[in-house]
Amino acid sequence: MKGPAILALALALGACAAAPPPPVATRAPVDLAAQRPEISSRALFGAPNPFPPQRHNAQIAQDILELGFRLESGRDLPVFSRFEGPVGLRLQGQIPPLGVIETDRLIERMRREAGLDIRRGNAPSMITVEFVPRAPMRQLVPSAACFVVPNVESWAEFLAAPRSSDLDWTRVAQRETVLVIVPADTTVQEMRDCLHEEVAQAMGPLNDLFRIGETVMNDDNFQTALTGFDMLVLRVWNDPALRPGMTREQVAARLPAILARLNPRGQRAGPPLDPVPTPRAWTVAVETALGTPRRSRAHALAQDALGIAVRAGWRDERLALALFLSARFAPEGDGQRAVAALTQAAQLYGARAGGDVPRAHVELHLAAQALASGQTDLVLRLTDSAMPPARRSENGALLSSLMLLRAEALEQLDREAEAARLRRQAAPFAVFGFGSEAAAIDRRNEIAALVRRD
Q1: What are the tens digits of pLDDT across the range 126-148?
Q2: Can you give the C-alpha Rg of the chain in angstroms?
Q3: Which of 121, 256, 297, 373 has the most CB atoms in a 10 Å sphere around its CB?
């Protein structure tokens, strides 16, 4: 279940500066008419080039067990669950203009990169993707941008009995019918992100883990499109050596041989396994911080999460995220400590397998701080580091924000032609990520407001 994206909360980019942040621009509504083929992920990013899995196989085996035998709520799943045989996928509801293009690209990737027998059309086992307006979705599931449920074929059927025992994933061994709910009136990027995560969970494990940076199955939402790690997990999950109804112990016994066969480069020795599980108190603090509109409350919760991470001795994504959120929600006038926290978070992400993309998100904030304090050369270095992983992970919102920050720095250095060209190049990525021409202009103005005008 995908929750709110961190980038969407990170609008006051100068919040870490010692000076008061600029006003946050009002977000323009999504313009579905702007969803033309030239702003699809296929047109903007070309052939997929995901980062390959970088964790070692012993760690991946642990990850798969935790992803596959627990729900996001913390409930354990008693047995291994998946589809058997070919899977059909159909679209219904208020399908947005680029819904078909993004779905077909996802299916192509799943077939080619994960070897899944899935195609658009009918089959004995079915995934139904229904596009529903955001308002009724939020009335029923306020915290979710999109979600996946078993044993129903439509939004109407789900609404008729939203608490039915038939929708309980703990009762499902062999999957036959799964419903994915995606907002119909959102940005192309959020639609694409929802399709990737929820269809992947329909075909694979159901949990999200904050401690894995190289997966979309992480509620930090730094990764937005399926990664090489995700495709490997899906390939393992659907390997013929596994069967629906297996226990955790039976799956654990077979994972080493499956991973050795499918991911031979992961057989190398690696660092010690990540400490698990994550205490519920840490997860609640982070999720509540991301969901509260009160900055002071969000900062206090981020500090709580940071304290738990430090006491536990973590050096992974959980500590990095707590540092990031502590800086993101830092009070005005606390700029030096916020920058120090961001710098430490960037170092932690950089030392982790698959940390390029999370680090790029942190570097976005560091670049914004650098721009606000007139450090244009630092802006250029940070954006030069962050733009390639933003592009490779197909994150239009992140990439366009970095490009616009870089353009402001170039303009400050009197390189106006380069700045103008970069802004033009950023525009379609901004529409992809933020939803409309007006929203893209809002983002540009927001970043321009960071520059000190003497």
Answers
A1: 999 999 999 999 888 888 889 99
A2: 21
A3: 373
